[in-house]
Design brief:
CATH class of the largest domain in chain A: Mainly Alpha
Order of helices and strands of chain A: HHHHHHHHHH
CATH topology of the largest domain in chain A: Tetracycline Repressor, domain 2
Oligomer: homodimer
Number of strands of chain A: 0
Strand content of chain A: under 5%
CATH superfamily of the largest domain in chain A: Tetracycline Repressor, domain 2
Distance between the termini of chain A: 42 Å
Chain lengths: ~250, ~250
DNA sequence: GTTAAATAGCGTATGCCATACGCGAAGGGG
DNA sequence: CCCCTTCGCGTATGGCATACGCTATTTAAC
């Protein structure tokens, strides 16, 4: 699914409010907030079962007990609703914790918080954010994170690039992690059973001699968890940031 | 789009061949190879215009001048076709170049090759690879890359994690880059014009005092290109790998 | 108190999509 | 030469987002 053809102006207007309540006319039975909340509920459930793509306007409307088309009185389309959902689940980094934390500790906390967000809302890493839109909560989160990081003396642009690269890493690994859990839950086939089932095909490939290095790998070479991959990438990134910044 | 509900056994069978040609019966007018090639052609074009989601079985069939349902004689479904497309465009790292290249140079070359792949086939980074499947070409690429990297003395598992994290980085940035180019081409609105149009809304937010740090950022703080972000992340990752590995 | 304007709810229709099913066509092996 | 297998693919089903217009509901204005 993607936030592809959305009208960005409309999304921004919705995100940043400014909605007026004219006294005249039939009063609305719903609200933007209720719709976004319901959409997130449905997405949270579907992402663990049918997958995020199963999120439909109909499903959201049914959750609210209204007709599908009623949603369109509040939201121009599904893409804009996705924008609202994305901003709504963003959480702001804790400002508690000593003021003397270094950038590495702060970034680690932010990464872990983002990781948790991806597990709490398992659809999140599947939304195509290829043209990210800043809503109020995202803006607040970024503002607070930058506020925490600025004392490090790292220039703002570098901070933004660090955050961007780190978030991409978290979401990439979370995407695979969430998908594995979903497939296991849905099919009842664990990852190990899955690979075992494919062993004959792959075994033949290994024995062909075309892949000498692959054939030579120890059986447990691939036995690392997504949590381990998350931690590995994060640690490497931070080491790399340190080399760049603390010189 | 996602490679979501695919039958992985079928995909593997198709990827690894073993197709038989029974002499009996009407001879096929198409071939798996032609279908995959046509699908890639269509996807290459659509990814720059309508977007990858516009890739449909009908569009592929039309390109081949056949009926939509004829494709299903060769491929169980769209998901499996995507698996074949993914494997088909994978290219194998050059083995040329001195044997004395260090791991960093080798990984850099692989990253740049992957980046080029994402630009040559702009749908590639949008395919959901949350449960990656190894076809013959992917397997070959991984085999050769590991062969080049093994002399570094880094253990195999670490090498795999490094490659995984690096590929995720490349694809994440490429996804945004490709999308930006597509939107600009389609709407005729450049990114700068886009932000300029949203300036009033964001200006108001800045003036609210809720985002003091964001408001304090220099105007050019966000002025970095995706190429720069690609290089930044890659350099940081490699520095981090070095800290981990060369101790 | 009545009416008209404004707005919400939403049924229906359109045009996409993937794909299941079955029929008729086209070859080769016997 | 015929039958059996396989292929091409039209049609049908059920999903999706969403445009349009009718009806219901409210309040402001008279």
């Amino acid at each position: 699914m993607t936030t592809d053809e959305r009208d960005l102006g409309r999304s921004l207007k919705l995100l940043w409010g400014g909605r007026t309540r004219p006294g005249r006319g039939r009063p609305p039975a719903l609200s933007l907030e209720r719709i976004v909340a319901a959409a997130i509920e449905v997405a949270d459930e579907l992402a663990l079962t049918e997958g995020f793509e199963a999120l439909s306007m109909r499903a959201i409307a049914q959750r609210l007990g209204v007709g599908t088309m009623s949603l369109y009185r509040y939201v121009p389309g599904k893409s804009e609703l996705l924008d609202l959902m994305l901003d709504h689940v963003m959480d702001v980094p804790d400002e508690t914790g000593g003021p003397d934390r270094g950038w590495r500790e702060i970034l680690s906390a932010a990464a872990r918080q983002h990781w948790r967000l991806c597990l709490d809302h398992p659809w999140y890493p599947f939304v195509d954010q290829s043209r990210p839109l800043l809503g109020p909560r995202s803006m607040l989160g970024l503002d607070r994170l930058l506020a925490l990081l600025r004392p490090s003396g790292i220039d703002d642009r570098t901070l933004l690039m660090m955050i961007s690269v780190q978030n991409d890493h978290v979401e990439s690994v979370a995407r695979r992690y969430v998908n594995e859990r979903r497939v296991e839950r849905r099919t009842g086939v664990t990852t190990e059973e899955f690979w075992a089932a494919q062993a004959p095909t792959l075994e033949k490939a290994m024995n062909s001699g075309d892949y000498p290095v692959m054939a030579d790998l120890a059986d447990d070479t691939f036995d690392f968890s997504y949590e381990q991959l998350f931690e590995f990438g994060l640690a490497r990134l931070h080491d790399g940031f340190a080399a760049h910044v603390d010189l």
